[in-house]
Amino acid sequence: AQSVAQPEDQVNVAEGNPLTVKCTYSVSGNPYLFWYVQYPNRGLQFLLKYITGDNLVKGSYGFEAEFNKSQTSFHLKKPSALVSDSALYFCAVSSAWVYNTDKLIFGTGTRLQVFP
Amino acid sequence: NAGVTQTPKFQVLKTGQSMTLQCAQDMNHEYMSWYRQDPGMGLRLIHYSVGAGITDQGEVPNGYNVSRSTTEDFPLRLLSAAPSQTSVYFCASSYSREPGNTIYFGEGSWLTVV
Fold first, then answer.
1. Would an 8 Å CB–CB cutoff place A44 in contact with chain B?
2. How would you label A30-53 residue by residue, b for 16+ Cβ within 10 Å and e otherwise?
3. What single DSSP character describes residue B73?
4. What is the distance between the alpha carbons of residues A97 and B94, in angstroms, rounded to a whole number?
5. Residue B33 CB-density burial (10 A; 0-12 exposed, 13-18 middle, 19+ buried)
6. What's the CA gap between B67 and A102, in Å, rounded?
7. Residues ≥6 apart with Cβ < 8 Å to A59
8. How does pLDDT run along chain B (114 residues), one tens digit per residue?
9. What's the rounded Cα separation, in Å, for the pair A110 and A18?
């Protein structure tokens, strides 16, 4: 069965420092990996995705993520955190199309808190 | 371009009442879906549709009904509201059901059942 794990409920980082939000996954076949961000009382906004190709994926707002097949991970990173990055971050995975099971599996979310 | 639009944003229901959450998208997407978000559980798929006239159940379909009479609209009906349905509901759409497609979400509907 497909699954996604976000091992940290919350990540705290000082403004200007690099940040990492961790994600590991388990799927059959090739994974399709996504990161979404949710600001308070708002919907989920797409940040980036990995489908194939270069393992380092660049996305919106200066975020990037590295696909590591051997470690089955897709960690979200940013070189210099901003207070405005404080939000809830979701990792999600899907895999090859199978009728009646095509869905995006979401992790439980990681709250990022950036302190001034 | 409005994207995915959901109404209402907030709603309080009494146990046993019924209601419909509206969802519309203007991106001509074939695939639409409804998720619910509960603390510590991420997002769980309720129902989805791969095109007009076609719907199917997701992970947590009980107590909900959907229809897809047009490409644009995908309403979610709560048949007889229960406190366990207190949640945040998100409508989403993507170009097709193929798993690599990006899913775009609405702003959410906060539902409380008392």
1. yes
2. ebbbbbbbbeeeebbebbbbbeee
3. B
4. 14
5. buried
6. 19
7. A35, A47, A48, A49, A65
8. 679 999 999 999 999 999 999 999 999 999 999 999 998 888 999 999 999 999 999 889 999 999 999 999 999 999 999 999 999 999 999 998 777 888 899 999 999 999
9. 16
Tell me if B42 and A44 make a contact (CB, 8 A cut-off): no
Distance from C-alpha of B110 to C-alpha of B105, rounded to nearest angstrom: 14
Q: How many residues does chain A have?
A: 116
Nearest CA-CA partner of B106 in B3, B36, B10:
B3
Nearest-Cα distance to chain B for A35, in Å, is 10
Instruction: Burial-class residue B96 by CB neighbours within 10 Å (0-12, 13-18, 19+).
Output: middle
**Tens digits of residue pLDDT in A6-26:** 999 999 999 999 999 999 999
Ramachandran area for residue B4 (φ above 0: left; ψ -120 to 50: alpha; else beta):
beta
Which residue, A94, A85, A102, A105, is CA-closest to A6? A105
Instruction: From residue A46, give the alpha-carbon distance in Å to each of A16, A75, B69.
Output: 23, 15, 27
A-B CB pairs within 8 A amount to 55
